[in-house]
Design goal:
With 141 residues, the chain is α/β, with parallel strands linked by helices. The chain has helices spanning 12-19, 23-33, 43-53, 56-59, 64-74, 93-104, 115-118, 131-139, and strands at 7-10, 38-41, 79-80, 109-111, 122-123, 126-129. The chain is globular and about 40 Å long.
Length: 141
């Protein structure tokens, strides 16, 4: 019986970094495309990505049409979940949404650069890890 690939929730900031050419996350994206990991996405995180990409500071660096194409393609790889639980452990409501997505998807990892999330380390058995540590400690095992 084939083991189910681990589920990851990738924070919006990491996906945007990837669009800016961030090399660290490229190996994770490759692993997702190879079905080594299954990413999870919620409607909230999808909208946050789109809203962030439309900000003038960001849209000057990445064309919004390219970002929307990326998200459309990304949705072919994800486990799309609609969280039913409400999480309130973080001071930033956006961070709570990431954790709610991770809980609903039964994620193994949340990959983020957000210090408010990283300080949690583990949330309900879900490891919260930076992209650099994920690549070094998890992907390269």
């Amino acid at each position: 019986m084939k083991k189910k690939p681990p589920v990851v929730v990738i924070d919006t900031n990491i996906l945007i970094s990837y669009l800016f050419g961030g090399a660290t996350i490229s190996s994770l994206i490759d692993a997702i495309e190879d079905d080594t990991y299954i990413p999870a996405l919620s409607p909230y995180l999808e909208q946050e990505f789109i809203d962030t990409m439309r900000k003038p500071k960001i849209s000057r660096r990445v064309d919004i049409a390219d970002a929307l194409d990326f998200m459309r393609d990304w949705k072919n790889f994800v486990n799309y979940v609609k969280p039913r639980c409400k999480v309130t452990v973080c001071r930033d409501p956006n961070d709570n949404e990431i954790l709610a997505c991770a809980l609903e998807a039964s994620a193994d990892f949340v990959i983020t650069g957000d210090k408010d999330l990283l300080v949690l380390d583990i949330f309900h058995g879900i490891q919260i890890i930076s992209p650099t540590d994920f690549v070094k400690k998890i992907l390269r095992r």
